[in-house]
Design brief:
Blueprint: H1 4-13, E1 22-28, E2 33-38, E3 51-55, E4 61-65, E5 69-74, E6 77-81
Antiparallel strand pairs: 1-2, 1-5, 3-4, 5-6
Length: 89
């Protein structure tokens, strides 16, 4: 499976692949749920391979670690999903 950082870069830089409506779903620890945001709302720093930034409802910039990304969808179809962690038996 492609790493999430590579997928976000492909959406950003590959003009053919990047056509469409992309949504990124990440786990919000405070709300204890997956939050989906449009890809164009992400602030991606070329040198940062560990997180992206978002402007929250209060106008503050929040840093979201890439390990909290759970899904990426294109035109309503999930194209990437983080594997579920195995539960101990």
């Amino acid at each position: 499976m492609i790493a999430i950082a590579q997928l976000l870069n492909r959406i950003r830089w590959d003009k053919e692949f990047g056509r469409g409506d992309f949504q990124v779903g990440y786990y919000d620890r405070l709300e204890d749920r997956i939050v989906s945001v449009p890809f164009q709302e992400l602030i991606l720093d070329h040198g940062d391979h560990f997180s992206f930034q978002l402007i929250n409802g209060d106008g503050n910039i929040c840093s979201i670690p890439l390990h909290r990304v759970r899904t990426v969808s294109k035109d309503g179809q999930i194209i990437w999903q983080r594997p579920q962690e195995e539960q101990p038996s």
